[in-house]
Write a structure and sequence with these properties.
The complex is a heterotrimer.
Chain A (H helix, E strand, L loop, with lengths): L6 H21 L2 H24 L6 H22 L1 H8 L2 H5 L5 H31 L8 H26 L5 H15 L14 H5 L2 H14 L4 H32 L6
Helix pairs in contact in A: 1-6, 2-3, 2-6, 3-6, 3-7, 3-8, 3-10, 6-7, 7-10, 7-11, 10-11
Chain B lengths: L3 E14 L5 E15 L4 E5 L6 H8 L7 E6 L2 E2 L4 H7 E5 L11 H11 L4 H14 L15 H13 L5 E5 L7 H16 L3 E5 L3 H7 L2 E6 L2 E6 L1 H7 L3 E9 L3 H9 L3 E9 L2 E9 L5 H12 L4 E8 L3 H13 L5 E5 L1
Parallel strand pairs in B: 3-8, 3-9, 6-7, 7-8
Antiparallel strand pairs in B: 1-2, 1-4, 2-15, 4-5, 9-10, 11-13, 11-14, 12-13
Helix pairs in contact in B: 3-4, 4-5, 8-11
Chain C lengths: L2 H20 L5 H26 L4 H11 L1 H18 L3 H6 L4 H31 L8 H26 L5 H15 L11 H9 L3 H11 L4 H36 L6
Helix pairs in contact in C: 1-6, 2-3, 2-6, 3-6, 3-10, 4-6, 4-7, 4-8, 6-7, 7-8, 7-10, 7-11, 10-11
The chains are: A mainly alpha, B alpha/beta, C mainly alpha.
């Protein structure tokens, strides 16, 4: 009965079913979602105050969007970074690893789901801004905004794949995850553009898809051409996908070979 | 061609511990295991915890690479033809983890059907059939977190069968399941074999092995100590009788005295509340021997409060205990190296 | 040994031992990552956001974030000092000890206070190195004293949360959320005066709000005298939280003994 189709033909469905499964799974813990939203809301509040004080009332929407973007990264950092560990705790890592599908294609939907669920934070900061601070939803280019959000989510999900594969090799990945939120928020220029950072950090920023995502979102909100950064964001994300795939393949091999990464 | 072939499998682990003086140890989990399982057979793998059963299964189901030897599933090498092997095997383990408990049974099965390459056109029908088979029809839309342990275990089995594998590995499938549910599971396992599949089962329950298995292999310290049908294994203990004595307050010293007697192969104690049941395995070489051992045991324990003392034929469990206790002390399991 | 020396020994030696046993960040990378790297990045982030928007000024954000940085060690440490007893199932043993509970748990808090103050001072040093922040040397002792008082208040607050944690299952959730809220409520980034009255009110009874205000007086050159009232209030807050913690512990202990549920705790 297994008239198998070739992998490229099955790929879209495989990714879609995986994404759906894990988004549903992650969305079914109201408490976790709520906790994940609190920090972005606090940041949104602080950002609105700072933008007001900086006499940029016209950019309040940008502040809310930036805080939401910070939430997406936090979700990727903690969700993807611990993806393998989480599956292990649930006891599903073995059945996942024993599937005929390459482990990369098992984990990519999981890390994409962590980014997608992070987008709840963006939604929350926007609603929060509108309701509490009367932030007007006046997007300069609504279409570009609608394109920039999924592009950023997708790219960060691809970064997540590399995180998932690398963090499992580190004994203290938690500590690393704890200290990686602010640097990426800063280097991506999520609240304010990266021009204020020291010049040496520019290449590091450019290597982060979230930097281009932040640029695109800012352009879509306040005006400017959002499309080039959207494309760069996706291109940089693809590089992470390739790196993540190589890393994940190596992790899988190593897990079977040395058994130092007990799969169960 | 065999459904499962293990040929001189070896698996060692390197572990290190300590921060300052790192101690490296090489642990041999599987030490030259060989066996063949023809298609349609239910093969039981028995052995104490840490004997190497799970490691052997993980090599056969491609989760671990062997450090020596080869393994084949329907002639396909598990190391070189990993994906092809994975399409032909199913893996089910016991315990109540291993499912997405915030998802429904249906969502769990849909997801794994995709990962195990079930053709989308037949997925729906296949899932319905399996839910029917494991008796979960009607409950498939409930979240797994509300399931009983037995239901979860049946869902595990359904998941393992999604891609219609020829060879199924069942690693302690009845672990922690209540007796009635365990009986249902055994009926289901027997049905799998009747439908022509090959099953490799590990279990700690001797009656389960005796009831289900065509052949049984006993592993201790990473080696296959005995292999045969349940009847053949029992014949391992054919030249033996078992004296079973109920006693209160026996101590280790008295047990050692029993062990020192000529012809006594092994002594085990089963604590049942206050009561201790002593099982003495004895070699016999004459018709008078069973009675001799019985009176010996009776006399040795005469100063204690003694209940029933009986001679009986060895069971599969006695044969198993005899094999395990006879071999366990043999091969050194680990070698430690300071680096 | 007289009573005082014995108690002092219990506070110091007992405190240090339990610090090692209960501190969850005992590996070097966990310790540095959680306690030093995170707050440093946080400080840099806000300084650059401030620069980008042209608000608040470097010194305002550096001083605020540096004082805030002691909160992780203090609040989480204080919570751990008590709540982890439950996790490791050792609470019954500790409560059976004839020693004063207050002494035992205050001893537990001491290492976190020193740790928190060390983090704050390190942040000020890092700001001087990385961001070119400068302040006259004669203001430093007062500044260090301020961070120490802030760390004490945070740890006392942590002990209160930890005591609540003996009863509440998800205390870490509360600790995490509180810790995040302090960023907004203690006037570290947004001056307290700009917050709505309700938030300002909550902030004024949280630890650090007054330490931050005192530190700002000191770095603004208003002199130690100007910082005095805020420091005194902060000491009062520390004492209040300590008392709450001790009372809660006593209440839960009596209750537990009466219902014989020490294990259930």
């Amino acid at each position: 009965m297994n008239a198998r189709r070739s992998l490229p033909r099955r790929l879209p469905r495989l990714l879609a079913v995986g994404l759906r499964t894990h988004i549903v799974y992650l969305s079914r813990s109201p408490l976790e979602i709520l906790v994940a939203l609190i920090e972005p809301l606090i940041f949104a509040t602080i950002a609105v105050y700072l933008f007001r004080a900086g006499d940029r009332p016209g950019e309040l929407l940008s502040a809310a969007v930036g805080a939401g973007l910070m939430g997406i990264w936090a979700s990727v950092l903690f969700g993807s970074g611990a993806a393998i560990q989480n599956q292990r705790w649930m006891g599903v890592l073995e059945p996942l690893a024993a599937a005929p599908v390459p482990l990369v294609l098992v984990f990519l939907p999981i890390t994409l789901a962590s980014a997608a669920v992070g987008a709840y934070a963006l939604l929350a900061t926007l609603i929060w801004g509108v309701l509490l601070f009367g932030v007007p939803l006046d997007f300069a280019d609504p279409l570009a905004f609608v394109a920039a959000v999924p592009a950023t989510v997708l790219s960060l999900g691809m970064v997540g794949l590399l995180l998932a594969a690398s963090f499992v090799l580190l004994p203290n990945a938690n500590a690393l995850a704890n200290s990686l939120s602010y640097p990426v928020w800063m280097m991506s220029g999520m609240l304010v553009p990266v021009d204020v950072l020291p010049a040496w950090s520019a290449p590091l920023s450019a290597a982060l898809p979230s930097k281009w995502g932040a640029d695109a979102l800012r352009a879509a909100v306040t005006g400017g051409d959002a499309w080039p950064p959207i494309l760069i964001c996706l291109a940089v994300g693809l590089c992470y996908l390739v790196l993540g795939a190589l890393m994940m393949t190596w992790v899988e091999r190593r897990a079977r070979d040395t058994a130092t990464l007990a799969l169960a | 061609m065999y459904a499962i072939e293990a040929d001189n499998l070896h698996r060692t682990y390197r572990t290190s511990s300590g921060w300052i003086r790192r101690t490296r140890r090489t642990i041999t989990a599987v030490d030259g295991v060989s066996f063949q399982v023809p298609p349609g057979e239910l093969f039981g793998l028995l052995g104490p915890n840490g004997a190497g059963k799970t490691t052997t299964i993980k090599i056969l189901n491609t989760l671990l690479l062997p450090t020596g030897g080869t393994a084949r599933i329907h002639g396909l090498d598990v190391t070189r033809h990993t994906a092809e092997v994975r399409r032909r095997i199913g893996y089910v383990f016991g315990g109540d983890r291993g499912l997405y408990d915030r998802l429904s049974a249906l969502d769990n099965l849909r997801y794994f059907a995709e990962l195990y390459e079930v053709d989308p056109r037949v997925q729906r029908r296949r899932i319905e059939e399996l839910l029917e088979l494991v008796g979960l029809t009607g409950r498939q839309k409930e979240r797994v977190e509300g399931y009983s342990r037995g239901m979860k275990q049946r869902l595990h089995i359904a998941r393992g069968l999604l891609h219609d594998p020829d060879v199924i590995f069942l690693d302690e499938p009845t672990l922690g399941v209540d007796p009635v549910a365990a009986r249902d599971l055994r009926a289901m396992i027997a049905e799998l074999v009747r439908s022509g599949r090959t099953v490799l089962l590990t279990t700690h329950y001797m009656f389960e092995a005796e009831e289900l298995c065509d052949r049984i292999g006993v592993i201790t310290s990473g080696r296959m100590r005995a292999l045969g049908t349940p009847g053949e294994l029992k014949r391992h203990a054919q030249d033996r009788v078992v004296v079973e004595a109920e006693v209160y307050g026996v101590d280790e010293e008295q047990l050692d005295a029993l062990r020192a007697e000529r012809g006594v192969r092994g002594v085990t104690v089963d604590q049942r509340g206050m009561l201790q049941v002593i099982v003495v395995q004895c070699d016999i070489d004459g018709d008078a021997e069973p009675e001799r051992f019985r009176s010996f045991v009776r006399q040795s324990l005469a100063h204690l409060k003694l209940g029933r003392v009986e001679v009986r034929e060895p069971t599969l469990e006695d044969a198993y205990v005899g094999i395990v206790t006879g071999q366990e002390a043999a091969a050194p399991e680990t070698t430690a190296v300071l680096s | 040994m007289n009573g005082f020396a014995s108690t002092a020994r219990l506070v110091v030696v007992g405190g240090m031992t339990s610090y090692r046993a209960l501190f969850n960040w005992t590996t070097p990378s966990m310790y540095i990552g959680t306690l030093f790297a995170s707050p440093l990045f946080q400080l840099l982030f806000f300084v650059y956001v401030g620069r980008g928007l042209g608000v608040a000024g470097d010194e305002f954000l550096i001083v605020g974030n540096a004082v805030l940085s002691c909160s992780v060690a203090g609040i989480f440490g204080g919570t751990m000092a008590i709540a982890n007893e439950r996790r490791y199932g050792t609470l019954g043993t500790v409560l059976l000890s004839p020693r004063s509970r207050a002494a035992i748990f205050l001893g537990r808090g001491l290492p976190y206070v020193l740790n928190g103050a060390l983090v704050s001072v390190t942040m000020l040093g890092a700001a001087a190195l990385l961001l070119g922040w400068r302040t006259p040397v004669d203001r430093l002792p007062a500044l260090v004293l301020t961070t120490l008082v802030g760390a004490i208040a945070c740890t006392a607050f942590g002990l209160t949360l930890g005591s609540v944690g003996l009863r509440l299952r998800d205390i870490w959730l509360v600790t995490n959320i509180t810790s995040a809220l302090m960023l907004l409520l203690t006037g570290v980034i947004v001056p307290s005066g700009e917050l709505p009255a309700l938030l300002r009110g909550i902030g004024s009874v949280l630890p650090l709000t007054h330490s931050v205000a005192a530190a700002r007086h000191i770095t603004d050159g208003d002199g130690f005298g100007a910082a005095g009232p805020d420091l005194l209030i902060e000491v009062g807050i520390a004492v209040a939280y300590t008392l709450i913690a001790v009372v809660l512990l006593r209440v839960f202990e009596t209750e537990a003994r009466r219902r014989a549920v020490l294990d259930a705790m």
